[in-house]
Amino acid sequence: MGTMAGLGESALSFSLLLSSLVLIVALGAAAFFLDHIRRVGYRDSFFEDPSSLSKVPCPSIFDPAEKYISLIIPAYNEEDRLPSALDETLNYLQHRSAAEKSFSYEVLIVDDGSRDHTSRVAFDYVKKYKIDNVRVLLLGKNHGKGEAIRKGMLHSRGELLLMLDADGATKLTDLEKLESQIQTFVKSARKADSSTDCSPRLSDFEIAVFGSRAHLEKQALATRKWYRNFLMKGFHLVVLLAAGPGIRDTQCGFKMFTRSAARKLFTNMRLKRWCFDVELVYLCKQFGIPMVEVAVNWTEMPGSKVKLTSIVHMLFELVLIRVGYGLGIWKVYS
């Protein structure tokens, strides 16, 4: 009787152990799958073509480049400011593509769950300029600027990828300053690596160029309220502690990446809202991706969405960067 009871307990223990192992493996596989989806995006995502009412499959950042440059514009409740920014953007891009045969472009507007008519405004431009040149990605609900840009980057087709704000605060022609830095870097890298007969494509090099308003700091300090200057200085100090030195203005919304650099950065980026820019600096350092800071023309536009509660959220996200990466909780995949 005792022997039978012992066998029964052993069988029960073995069954529980086996069930636990199966559960652990299943949870691990699910976590891996969800992290993979988070990093590379859904392959069954699509863009809507309002002209033909057809669905165009989303490309992946892992696909070869099909355009010279992609412009990613995150938009949340931007029905009023978006038209003027898009008019300036598309006017420049059309003139340049007419002058340079090798210049091709796409503008990717990411509607981050807007509650107004942002998507309707954006789709009007798709109709006017065709879906090969202008595309709208609908996120459904509001995730945050960082996530909107990340999704846009993951589904872009350019050799160069430029993120810019929907308010048109930075003069678009300044993209040539960022582009020039990348071209100079690539030219030097190609000249240094003369061991191969096959010249790598522009998109194969890794570099990030950050538009900067640091040269306007003295003017800003003179015109801002004292408490805003105090908060700004405190924020810069915390940024320095979180990501280290290197970039004076991490928060300017005008940044350009080569496709290879964007692939590494945006498949690893985790912050969804305010401080994803700081995380990008941190990731560039982790991957050894060169960073260049370039002064750009910038105008403060009305309608800022930054509130006092946003400052608190920013500080929380900066702490997350130090804790997440510092303790190895957030893994980096190359």
Describe the structure in brief:
With 334 residues, this protein is an alpha/beta fold.
Molecular structure report:
- This protein is globular.
- It is built from ten helices and nine strands.
- It has helices spanning 2-40, 82-99, 118-129, 145-154, 175-192, 217-223, 226-243, 259-266, 276-287, 308-326; strands at 46-49, 54-57, 67-75, 105-111, 134-138, 158-163, 208-212, 255-258, 291-295.
- 48% of the residues lie in helices and 15% in strands.
- 36% of the residues are buried.
- The protein has a seven-stranded mixed sheet, sandwiched between helices. It has a two-stranded antiparallel sheet with strand order 1-2.
- α7 packs parallel to α10 (308-326) and α8 (259-266) packs across α9.
- It has 334 residues and is of the alpha/beta class.
- Residues 27-34 have low confidence and may be disordered.
Features:
7-stranded mixed beta sheet; dolichyl-phosphate beta-glucosyltransferase; 334 residues; alpha/beta
**Strand elements, count:** 9
Mean pLDDT: 84
Strand percentage, roughly? 5-15%
Number of helices: 10
Shape: globular
Q: How would you characterize the largest beta sheet?
A: 7 strands, mixed
Strand and helix order:
HEEEHEHEHEHEHHEHHEH
Strand order of the largest sheet: 5-4-3-6-8-7-9
Overall SS class:
alpha/beta
Helix content bin: 40-55%
Specify Rg, calculated over alpha carbons.
Answer: 23 Å
> Which segments are poorly predicted (pLDDT under 50) over 5 or more consecutive residues?
27-34
Membrane topology: Single-pass membrane protein
Organism: Rhynchospora pubera
Protein name: dolichyl-phosphate beta-glucosyltransferase
Pathway: Protein modification; protein glycosylation
